[in-house]
Amino acid sequence: MHPFSILTLGIFVAGYITARWDLVTRLYELAIFAWNYGVVTRAAKGFAVLSLFFLLIFLPVERLATRESDLHPRSIGSGISAREQLRRRGRDGLMRVFWPADLPRSDLRGVVVGWRNSALDVFVLTILEEVEPRNVEFALKTGILLRDAPHPVSRIYELCGQLAIHVLGLSNTHESVEVDPSWIRVTIGPGRRVPAVTCSRASSIQIILFERPHPGRMQYISLNPITLALGDKHDSFRHDAPDACEDDDEKEARRRKEEKRHLVEKLKQHSIFKRVPSEKEKALAKIVNQINWAWELEKLLQKNVSRIGTRPKRSLSVSERVVESATNARDMLVVWIWNQFTVYVWPVIKRMFVLGLVAHRIAAEVLLRILEWRARPRYAALKDVSATAQQVEIRLQQFCYWPMQYVTLRRRENDWDSVTTSHPDYIRFYNSLWLVANDVIIGMALGSYIIDNADRVAQQISQLLTEYTVEALQSSISWLMGWPAGLKLNNELAVFLGDLFLWVIDYWSSFIEALRPILPHIIWFIGFSSFAGASMPVALFSDLLSILTVHIYSFYLASGRIYHWQLNILISLFHLFRGKKHNVLRNRIDSCDYDLDQLLVGTILFTVLSFLLPTVVVFYLNFAIARMVIISLKAVFDTLLSCLNHFPLFALMLRIKDPGRLPGGIRFELRDTQDFKHSINGSSEQLPSTSVIYLKSVPLQFKAMFHQYFQMGHRIRKHYLAPRVLLCLITGKFVPPLNRKNLYSLQYSMLPARRAGVMEMWNAVNSLPEPKKRIAPVHVPVLANGMKLPSNYRGGKPRGYG
Amino acid sequence: MLTTAPHLYIRRPSPTTAEFTVTTCPPLTVPLRLLLLTLHLARALLFSAAILVLYARFVEPSQHHDHRHHYYHHQGCCTPIFPFQLFLAGDVPQFLTTLLQTAHRSQPGIFLSQLTAPLPDWAVAAASLAAAYAAVCFRLHRTESVLVLRGLGIQTCTIRGKWGGCFGTQTRFIPTEQIRDVLINEAFRGFEVRYYLIVVVEGEEDVVVLFPGLLPRRRIVEAVWRGVKGCLFEGEEDGKG
Q: What stretches pass through the bilayer (chain B) (predicted)?
């Protein structure tokens, strides 16, 4: 510091002290006070105690800790992080090797290449034969081995969850060859199904063998069963459910479910601590993807083996050149014609098709708007009332959805085959196409039959109509009017009711007579409509049935209402009889003092009504049974419709043809290691304890395919075969038909909740990729440097898949 | 004699992989093997008898006429052929019909058709179908297993009912990531208390019961529980953790 500034500072301090002299005296007084009251001695005592503690406890503990840490030294890192703990827990020396069971087995020297999911968790993709590991490592780093990939390579890494493909080890090398400690040594040969794997770091080994799914055949594996229905549908239906009449049993079921959930939640509290899953356990989803990619990646790697190392140059011989130019000339011609076609003809066809599609879409939109129109939000739309309208709506929705589905499927072509996300879409698309085609075929057969025999069919139907809806009713009513089965009914009431119904039936039969001449035309129309699919006439017949049995429905309603009233009156009169009455405000039975005349009149009325009750009951029962028969007939029609519309036919065929395309989960099989160990005995090396496990894909269960049908059956059974319905029938209350929306959730399960708009479709269709230009093929003979398998010796194209 | 109380087999090729099998099949000794063989033969016999009765009652009369016609035409050149020649020639349907015909004309076949003659059609059909089903699908021994793979998960293999044949087995794989815990639970069943193993699965509304069909005794359940705990989770040996 500069002497001058020191002088300045000194002058300042001195000045300050003289100016504030009272501060100094204050401090002096404080010191004297402290000394007088023993503060200094107490501070000294505290210091002495603390140093004693330090000497007696902290120093020995520190010495002990140092000695202990000298005994168990830790390599790097001072604090123990969670990751470190995880890694340490993984150190049980268990190595997991995923090995494709269908990998070619040869006893040549090779380099094992694949994914390294964690230190002791490897996934083998392939064995590159007769190459140097150093070269392979270099080639993997520079990406030479993934050259000529048909689609972007980054997609592989993204879906397989790894940043790079690694060299995992060596196969069939001699003991003396020095390898990296993390590498595996594999012994394999044509005679050995299961490879013998050793690794210097592993104490026990799981070899998991799997058959690679063939992506070209759209096979894949997945942890969860493939969903054939669209997922988003169910939620929207669940949202609609509460405003519809929610039944008591439904509430009951929900309550029970809630209770069970509560119990399970309690059970979960039994486990005290939550285990942190290790790297290996979390890798399963990634591994499933890697298995799905294994086939395609292996082909790509094997194709590029020849690029490793230096490539010998060689010019073509004369005969090869002649062959090449000849093939080139032919190919050039084909390419020229193809180019002309794609440039001039194809765009015109495509544009016309797209325009037609959009026009169709607009017409469909208009029709759908009409079908879905509701006068008020709670009112029924046309499609809720009529089966035909609903059928038309389903078809139109399908037509609207197809282009979108097709576009998603076409996008698939621009991606690797191993991307499995669109496979359920594929199945759904072709299932609905196939069902419509089937429907049309069956419909043509049915339609041509109906049109050819329109008169006979019409005659049959009108005969059935008069026989069952008019004459049978008439005869049964007249039977009820004269003491049926020996029951003595009230003559006057029976005759009154019977005459009433007979009169209406007479009127109705005259209507049917009027209808008879037009019936052949209607039948002809139905027959004609069946060219749009067999489901159309079924839906029309279902509607025709409801229209032509309107009178039975109204009879049922009327007689049911009368019966219900009478029962109610009887019940309240019975209360009067006992001196009680129903309190409406509190919804309970109160005692009540009636006058004598009230009691008298009530008793007389009670007697009269209870004697009249049997007469009303028989009429009610008659119409209720007729109504039930009609409901079950309609149920048959509806089941037929749902079979025609949504039978999982394509899925069933796929399941029979190739179960690998419909994965329903995975399954492991523990193999005996006796024979495995036996075959090792020849070699000198000692194998670590090894378990051989086969990973297999479980095909989708048939039960899962028909899951929705089971659900629908369950719903119908619950609605109609419940004690509640019986109670309704007995008390004469109206049995509500099953909500159409509930019944048809199956029908809509393969359609999206919201259909794409016209503009959306226009954009989607126009965004389709152009067809690939055919480029004149240039044959570069593949000159093998590494050893190549003959099956892979095919230049650019992969082998044709079956 | 043919079945025992459920007992446990453990297969453990490496300390990290184990399969626990609970079965009612007693250890296979030579007499037992012979007994089982005869049992299987009896089942095969029952099945073929049922098929033969069905054939004799419902197919043969309609074909009888046909074949006489057939023989009539080829009587000159046709010597009685052995059915196995047809089988070797690869004509399986023809082989089967010939075999059935031969069996039908043999002594036991005639005896069978005489035996079933007084019964009505529907009774014959129902009885023989039931017999065929029983012969094929009856399961003498019941075996359920749990496969534990460290780092992967637990796989259960269960059997539903006694009559499922080979269709009743269901496998289910639960990844370790989803396993919250493996516990022994107790429940009333009839007039007894049963201990059973459950797997609590993350994000599922039901717990998974291991060995649901056999529900082995407590000794076995405890052994399996210790094994599963020691095998499945790293750093927990013998379920002490």
A: none
